[in-house]
């Protein structure tokens, strides 16, 4: 249900590219950069080609290589993990409290897909609808409190769950971030499976 695959390709100067498939159950999205304001920005950053520094061959010769990750297989339920905890050089861990916009309806663009599957995935296989958001409250990675908003099908609406407190909320409250309520995990279901 949650399993997908990413394709990781390493490009080396005057050498054949090397590709590996890796399974994932959550897509971990780095949100550190000031340029990243939305889930779409974070997804585009995930698949951006990056240069790998200090790579040497067996003959100790330094060569230029780069790496790119693309989505090979999308799961029925896509879990996006916004990486809010960042390790500092001093050894501590700090929480990134920044607003990241996320839509209720998310379409995975073809540019995020591996070349071999770009044209095999119909739009309905790349379109997802949000059904749950997990929030972390607090500033520390070693403590805090978790709450969740869940779309309840029978109610045809959203519930906010905080320990034993459950209350009905509207969709606007789910997608509108606040300083004390920043999304940590986003759960999307493929629309053709609704």
From TrEMBL:
Claim: Cell inner membrane is one of the keywords in the record: no
Enzyme class: hydrolase
Catalytic activity, EC: 3.4.19.12
Pfam families with a match to the protein in the record: UCH
Gene3D superfamilies: Cysteine proteinases (3.90.70.10)
Alphabetically ordered keywords of this record: Hydrolase, Protease, Thiol protease, Ubl conjugation pathway
The name this protein goes by in its record: ubiquitinyl hydrolase 1
Organism lineage: Eukaryota, Metazoa, Chordata, Craniata, Vertebrata
Name of the gene: USP10
């Amino acid at each position: 249900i949650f399993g997908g695959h990413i394709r990781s390709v390493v490009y080396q100067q005057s050498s054949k590219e090397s590709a590996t498939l890796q399974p994932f159950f959550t897509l971990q999205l780095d949100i550190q950069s000031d340029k990243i304001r939305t889930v779409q920005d974070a997804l585009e950053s995930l698949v951006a080609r990056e240069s790998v520094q200090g790579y040497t061959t067996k003959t100790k010769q330094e060569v230029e290589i780069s790496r790119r990750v693309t989505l090979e297989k999308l799961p029925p339920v896509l879990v996006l993990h916004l990486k809010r905890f960042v390790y500092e050089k001093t050894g501590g861990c700090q929480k990134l409290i920044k607003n990241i916009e996320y839509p209720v309806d998310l379409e995975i663009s073809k540019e995020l897909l591996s070349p071999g599957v770009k044209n095999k995935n119909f739009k309905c296989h790349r379109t997802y609808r949000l059904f749950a958001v997990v929030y972390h409250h607090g500033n520390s990675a070693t403590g805090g409190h978790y709450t969740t908003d869940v779309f309840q099908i029978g109610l045809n609406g959203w519930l906010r769950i905080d320990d034993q407190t459950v209350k009905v909320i509207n969709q606007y409250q789910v997608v509108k971030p606040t300083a004390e309520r920043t999304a940590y995990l986003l759960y999307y279901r493929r629309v053709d499976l609704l």
